[in-house]
Amino acid sequence: MNRNTAKSIRNNLTADCAKCFGLCCTALNIVQSSDFPMSKPANTPCVNLKSDYRCNIHSQLRDKGYKGCTVFDCLGAGQVVSQVTFNNVSWRENPEARDQMFRVFPIMEQIHEMIAYAAEALSYDLPIALTDTLSKKLAELQKVTAWSASKLLAFDLVTYRFSLNGLLTEASDSIRETAIAELPGAKKLKDLDRSRVNWMGKKLNGKDLRAVDFRGALLIAANMQNTDLRAASFIGADLRDADFSGANLSTSMFLTQMQMNSAKGDAKTVLPFYIQRPSHWIRVGSGRSR
């Protein structure tokens, strides 16, 4: 697969709520917290979900305490389940399929996440053998999205994620090694390994963090203003309330829209090509992040 095709696949993994039956508003369990003002059990419609599957308070979600709703992103899984898996027949129109639809949604969400990671990796210049193997994995995952609900419910996500994670680690190491070669001083991969580090609230503003591996790191509320994070890997990192105002994330790897939605930033934050700037980052007329 060529890099432009991979970029296109990654770039097109976006939610289209108009083609979804409000699955994130029904299938998921919600616990009252700083992100939600109320609790809701899984497989139960939110009180704000209208009959046409739109949100009754969409423009006021943050003001009314539904911060979590503005963070969540399904990478387009919702419309695929609605339009492909269940042939545009909603859980209201077909109550017998309701439970199955709600169970398939989080599975499809994880499949789309794997597709996103694989496609992004293939958008870089990788060794030929690794490119071929990742391309095959990506093609397999794309076919899985067209499976029936019963096949999807039987899909072994754990085993598949494990095998893909190994390939993504190889890709990350290859990309980071190339970037490290351009850094001052003789550095190796292990010198920039911060995987699973606990840097909650850490002050890192203005640091050169190029090619750092933040896999699974806890960066909650970290100050990363004006940091250089090119070629850094963020797969599985917790970025809630981390401040990336003015940071350069242009070639940061394996970021998701949900991670960025949960973080802070501003108009000067440089994002990867597939990430949309969260609308809640900027206060109208102030130019400051929220």
UniProtKB/TrEMBL annotation:
SUPFAM superfamilies, per the entry: Pentapeptide repeat-like
Q: Which Pfam families match?
A: Pentapeptide
What domain of life is recorded for the organism? Bacteria
This protein's name: Pentapeptide repeat-containing protein
